[in-house]
Design brief:
The complex is a heterodimer of chains A (about 280) and B (about 240). Chain A is about 70% helix and about 0% strand. With about 280 residues, chain A is an all-alpha fold. In chain A, helix 11 crosses helix 12. The N and C termini of chain A lie far apart (about 55 Å). Chain B is built from ten helices and no strands. In chain B, about 40% of the residues are buried. Chain B is elongated and about 90 Å long. By secondary structure, chain B is an all-alpha fold. The chains are: A mainly alpha (about 280), B mainly alpha (about 240). Chain A: Its main location: cytoplasm.
Amino acid sequence: MEEPSKRQSTSPVMAMFEGFRSELDEHHDRRERMIKASRDITAASKKIVRALNKPLPGFVAKSNAQYWGIIQTQYKNISRDLQGLNAYRYGRNITGGNQEFMEALSFQHYLEHQNLITYKEANDYVAKLGGEGGPVLLTTEDYILGIFDMVGELMRFAITAMATSGELPGTLVQEDVTSRESHDEQAGDSMDVEQPSTTRTQHPQKRDVLADLRELRLCLEGLEPSRGSKFEGDAEKKMTVMRQCVEKVETALYGLIVRGQERPKGWVPDLREERRGAEAIEGY
Amino acid sequence: MADRTGMVDPAIFEDLQARIDEETSVREELRGIIQNKAVQFILARAHSTPAYAFSKLVSDASLAIEDEVKIIAKLSQAAEKLPYYKWNTMWSRQIQDATYGILLCGWLGGNGSDSQPGRLLTIEEVGGIMNVPVNLKGRDGFHLTIEEYLQALISLVDELARLARNSVTLGDYLIPILISQFIKDLHAGFQILNLKNDSLRRRSDGIKYRVKEVEDVVYDLSLRNLIPKDDKGKKDDAT
């Protein structure tokens, strides 16, 4: 095509397309900045999560500071491009990073407070990271999908703790756990996995990770996504993995109760196929 | 909140579900608005209509476009209060089709083109006919995007390539020349865009084949001396 260059200056069509070109270039540049930031946030979040899973909390807080710093910088850099109309336009490019960060944030929050960070808290947190450019939006989808992933981390946390200490990590609660049990029963269709709970109700004063996992599972299963939305598909995929995660802890606990005494300290249950969500689906 | 002994504050998921339910009802409202194809059905008759009868076709299509614009008004009203890019995938296809209908109608001589075929309506003109803003940047609201307009242009090119052959069948040997020049201009335009590997890129890659198809038609005509003499200037430019 040599012809166009000749016509370039004369044709009104060309002038129009030159306008389009600059608009599209601006769009693509911005989009790429989002994707890059999303990747960096993902990478830093994964490092945070990995470090949190190590049994050295004090040390971890310090070494993770740099990753929190990276995340903050990234959000600050892109926040200006995520305002108003653009919040959703580029939302789909940043959602990966948001979800991964949500996983790290909720996991850390759980380790510190033993409860689930609320959507509002999480959204406020991410909004603050936007800095001068304005708040960054964390959608409910980002939040929920992040929580799904966090279940996987809780599973790993529980298994590691069982292997090293020989019991499930937990906290003492003031009120009787059984009151919450009855609440769960109304909500759920997960009665088929409730059998091992007898081991827990023997000492109802203690709330452990497995109880929390089951509660999360019920809550996540109770959500009804809009028909035909992208979120419906995403949630469905993660649901399978999430259920497997809870069941893995239940299986491990069963093993611990039945054969636990025979095992030496530091024995790790054989759960090799658990590596990551996506692979777990394929194996399913 | 009262029985907060567990890990999850029940209010969290109640709140989330409420938000999701809200979205579900928006989705259903929008879905109810979007459905229309009348304009394309009418304009499809172009393939069996000689150029001198385009004006009747165009006036029929214009009426259908008016109806379509009413639907777009309804959609735009419903969508105005929503974040545009959160929902636009729901109607983007329909807006592209509507844009394409308006563009084709304009090319055939409608929509203020003074019954002369061969005119390209700009994105602003299409937005004017639809009565919606185009390429909004400053604020969030319903509008026609550049991508939608470009997608519709590609549909127009595909359709015109077909029309070039069919108009020859009807004995009209001038239309292909007009189309050939028109498509070449658009092709040159698309060439300067830096498209990423998206659907716009994939579809615009097909334009060069349309250019060639129409060139072949023009070649066949000029080889057989079928192109009217008084249009010499145009012919030289096109071949």
